[in-house]
Amino acid sequence: MEISVISRTDNSLEIVFKNADFSLLKIIQTNLIDDKRVKNISVKRGHILTKEVYLFILTDGSDPKQVLKDGIEKAKDMTKSLKEEIENALSRP
To answer: Which domains, and CATH codes, for the chain?
Structure first.
């Protein structure tokens, strides 16, 4: 996966992910939708042949880099919890 910053301001960040899975970024988006610091967040696919996924985040003035890091951490916790629940369900007779 290759990651490039397209644009960055004090309250916004746009990143393109090459050869990334769209669903991964949707998980991050889902974890940031209810964050009070986030005014807008979107994830969109580029052209199907380029395998690019774009993420845009607009904040209330908070550092978008930190907000994104927090969203990634929440996504990480969510997937860890999901993994544990699946393992518990599969270990039952």
So the answer is: 2-91 (3.30.1360.10)
pTM for the predicted model, two decimal places: 0.85
- pLDDT for 64 equals 97
- The radius of gyration of the chain from alpha carbons, rounded to an integer in Å, stands at 15
The length of the chain, given as a count of residues: 93
Q: Provide the pLDDT confidence category of residue 87 given band limits of 50, 70 and 90.
A: very high
Which long-range contacts link 40-49 to residues 24+ away (Cβ below 8 Å)? 46/16
Query: Residue 14: is it exposed, middle or buried by C-beta count within 10 angstroms (0-12/13-18/19+)?
Result: middle
SS3 52: strand
pLDDT band at residue 19 using 50, 70 and 90 as cut-offs? confident
Cβ pair 21, 40 in contact under 8 A = no
